[in-house]
Hints:
The protein is of the alpha/beta class. Helices cover 42% and strands 13% of the residues. The chain has a 4-stranded parallel beta sheet with strand order 3-2-4-5, sandwiched between helices. Strands 8-7-9-10 form a 4-stranded parallel beta sheet, sandwiched between helices.
Amino acid sequence: MRVVPRGYGVRASVRAPARFFAVVLCAALLLAACGRPGATPTPSGPAADPDAIHVVTTTTILADLVRQVGGTRVVVTSLVPKGGEVHTFDPRPSSMRAVAAAELVVRNGLGLDDWLAGLITNTGSTAPLVAVAEDLPGVTYLRAADGVINPHVWMNPRYASAMAAKIAAELALVDPGHTGRYVAGLAAFQTRLAALDADAAAALAVIPQTHRTVVAFHDAFPYFAEAYGLAIDGTIVAAPGQDPSAGTVAHLVARIRADGIRAIFAEAQFNDELAQTLARETGAAVVTDLYTDSTGDAPRDTYEGVTRWNVARVAAALLAP
């Protein structure tokens, strides 16, 4: 029986009209994506084609998904730098220049990177804009208690695979002469993502049921938890940049003690002082170097790299005696 993350028990499928061609092409790309092996690439690969498509993304996670699908057909710029914070990002002059020059702009959507709208307006960009986490077939969206959909869809590798398919469809619309390249890139990437998901499931399946409940720094982990049978029993902050009250911290300390919570998950891009304080007060293990909204240094500089890192760190924390 799978444990559903607490606070995200209500699910909603989000659907909206989409361009007919994009839907048909996306389905074709998904069907083409089975059975093709490929080695895990790194961001430093072959030089881009002279006529490569210039793509701007809001995060380094999305930038990597575009690179894995597009290969040398794309040159990708992430507006939020490695280790940056997408929730509170303050665009820079370089952000405006990148958006103005883009031939395709890729955002997550679902409220995560709404600040991009101002950049689009201010630059007058007419590049296609796609929210790759929205309206995904086969995705069960998780809602918080206030009804807001959690935007961290990519934390489930199966959902990241659906996001990659949407990216491939958009690239083919912008660059139809190289559709075959995007079909092949998507196929290889989705094969690796399927292997990644299987490896993660195997690594986390051995965690005892009594060790599967955690506290997280912010609401980045529900899709990961839902995918692999973990439970999230509270978060330290309601949203990045919003420090909890003393009462909230005291309540979390009491809950961790009462529920026998094994571990506290925090992320590399955030200050870990609050997580360390909770760990000292409760004796729970603390993992402070997980990756959710951003990639990191090699070997954590790709989506596959950060996911494998996260799985290994989570398994080690929850399997510790």
